[in-house]
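During the second half of the funding period, the structural biology subgroup turned its attention to how the target accommodates small molecules. The most pressing case was 0PR, which had performed well in the primary screen but for which no bound structure existed. We therefore specified the complex as follows and requested a full 3D prediction, including the ligand pose.
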Amino acid sequence: MRAEPQDFSRVLSSMCTEPHPAAREAAETFLATNPGDPGTYQTVAELEGDAVDALGEIAGLDEPHGYIASGGTEANIQAVRAARDLAATDAPNVVAPESAHFSFRKAAGILGVELRTAPVDSDYRARVDAMTELADEDTALVVGVAGSTEYGRVDPLAALSDVADDAGALFHVDAAWGGFVLPFTDEEWHFDHVGVDTLTIDPHKMGRAAIPAGGLLARSPDVLDALAVDTPYLESTEQATLTGTRSGAGVASTVAALEALWPAGYREQYVRAQNNAEWLADALDERGYDVVEPTLPLVAADVPRSLFARLREEGWRISRTGAGELRVVCMPHVTREMLESFVADIDALART
Ligand code: 0PR
């Protein structure tokens, strides 16, 4: 194979990042293991238990049930699937804000569940009144987002948890991206603080594990039981995951990253990322662009289409929100120097 490894020096669009060196090494060591077959690959199966316990600690859950999934999409699909199968209705629906990740659309399509999406408020957070209006006795799951894909917003989770309770539904929080930064903010997102039933928290995003490593956590073992199927010809008797053969690399690198970084390293990483996001927001604001205040390390700003296109031509990997704004995710590989050079390019291009 002749190909250069990925260069992160102009990547501002991704929710993934360079793995921690220890995570990279662990991924390589466990590349040929399959946690989907714990009877054969015992070490990686034990590591998965450690990973779930550590994710539970981050998310404020003493006895977490869950597993390392292929990513946030799988975790969200499985949360919908468990809720559907636990609900006592023939016509289940899921109520989510329109800011929820598109993986919920996949989940609804695959699982034959109706997805009802509620509008968000002027700060891009779920509107509790609109969510309440959509929920009824057939609601199997209410979804809140803790760190939204487009604007990094955290929904009013305690109130949404009440909406779920009132409808007799489970409450799922999607902290796929936010989970590794929220512990260092004042946001209320914990299992401890709000009545969360299931949670998505992805080590392969802010957690600095190798891809593929998503996390699904549940308060009750019933959720995993609902997902489990019998596995007649494996030594283990049941499997709750969506995929069969899975990556031991994702599992082992999750444990390695958590050992290296939780909590001090992640705190440092968050502070640096948040400062960078605020610095970029100020820089764009000073240049007259409308900026969405970054509450988490993600900046959105209204820049002209032509400027966006020319920045991409300069090699900047940038993305857009649904509304067309420039979107920059301040991941751990994004340094102040990178952002300074990005803003310098904006200045140079805006002049011509
Ligand atoms: N939930 C939230 C809140 C997300 O932001 C994402 C991914 C998911 C779930 C789904 O996670 P997986 O992609 O792990 O299944 N959000 C990013 C997006 O769709 C994913 C992404 C990641 C995109 C890296 C580009 C990229 O380079 O925008």
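Two results from this model are relevant to the next phase. The pocket of 0PR is lined by residues 14-16, 71-73, 76, 101, 103, 145, 149, 174, 176-177, 202, 214 (CB under 6 Å). The domain at 263-351 is CATH 3.90.1150.10 (Aspartate Aminotransferase, domain 1).
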